[in-house]
Write a structure and sequence with these properties.
Layout lengths: L1 H27 L6 H14 L7 H30 L2
């Protein structure tokens, strides 16, 4: 009879995991949200450093580094445009 109860426990655990996953998906993305909205939200989370741990120094280090990399990218694009396209 232990096989029946352990099977029931496994099925119950799988059901709880499935419900938890569905709740996470429901919170993270709306079905009607566009791909552009999701991409903008991901970029905002990336530059805000939401993937950092609870360490405040690490959080601000990531924010500063990512901001500087964005500024360098924009400067490079402007340089390449002025050098090769605007002639």
């Amino acid at each position: 009879m232990t096989d029946g109860s352990s099977r029931h426990e496994r099925e119950e655990a799988a059901r709880r995991e499935a419900l938890r996953t569905l709740d996470q998906l429901r919170e993270r993305d709306d079905i009607g949200a566009s791909a552009l909205t999701r991409a903008a939200r991901r970029a905002t989370d990336h530059f805000a450093g939401k993937d950092a741990a609870d360490d405040r120094i690490e959080l601000w280090g990531r924010r500063i580094g990512r901001g500087l990399s964005l500024a360098a990218f924009i400067a490079l694009v402007i340089y390449l445009y002025v050098t090769y396209v605007a002639r």
